[in-house]
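=== RUN LOG ===
request id: a7f3
mode: sequence -> structure
chains: 1
length: 309
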Amino acid sequence: MDTGKFVESHSSHFGDRIKVARDLAALLDGPLLDLSRDASDGRRRSLAQTRLQLFERLSALCAQCGAPVPQLEPETVRALLPAAPREEASQQAAVMVDSIRTQIDASDSRSQACDCLVLARLLELVPGVMERWDGLDGDGVIALLNDRLLTLGLQPLRPDHLGMAVGGATDQPCPPRPLTVLVVDDEPEAIVRTISALVGWPDLDFRVLHVPGREGVSRKDALGSVAASIISLAPDIVLMDQGMYPAEGSGVILKVRELDPRSSIVFVGNTGGSPEDLQRAGAIGNCDKGRDPTPVRQAIWRVPSGDGT
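=== RESULT ===
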């Protein structure tokens, strides 16, 4: 679905949380979580898990703001199905859910309670299914159930949106002027995790630069390529990962300074590991994949005002 269009069509509901909704929608509509692109089964499933978490977070925001809750995306559910199902397990799950559908059809209500009954019955089957279904885990169980429910035209199981914590950075200080923040990382999930922790920050426009590892590319060429991309995007602040191969973050920072000595870009460390190399290259602190917003606040006040000062 076009999540951004959905949010804008119901923008009047969100009030002062509209930027949280828009930032979440931008992540969902962006290329990082596009499940249609070529990827290994494991990678696609990981992206689907990240996408589902983000989608349910937006859905919770909708519910809490009185906006319509978007329908669960069938393609995300399908991407979460366990790999290589064995025929016996697949048939067993289908027969069981079909039998429970008969019970639900006989009921006067298709409420969440009915859905929970379906889940409970499927979970009773899990010990037997687990032995015959490769890669089945909790997410796979829910995906199996929801895939079947959607196929049958029933409501899928979803979280308690009214009770979910949506979070966001709406209480963070507004910068003196609108700023662009670029998140640079080699892991799509890390980029999403970083931005999702900072959504709603007033007057910060988040952009992404995904730097996938490339075999056969020299460190020198990789550093030059990433640095040139950053310069061309002209961000005010860059949240920089360190452990990228072959272009480590600290080297990229130094290369940007070399290629554009007058650049006013403010770099912030954003690594799950040690930030010392990034800091020696001139980065501020460590945002730690969005866990610590303090360096972002510090960076905001180091960005030139735009009037030459």
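=== NOTES ===
The mean pLDDT is 86.
The longest strand covers residues 179-185.
=== END ===
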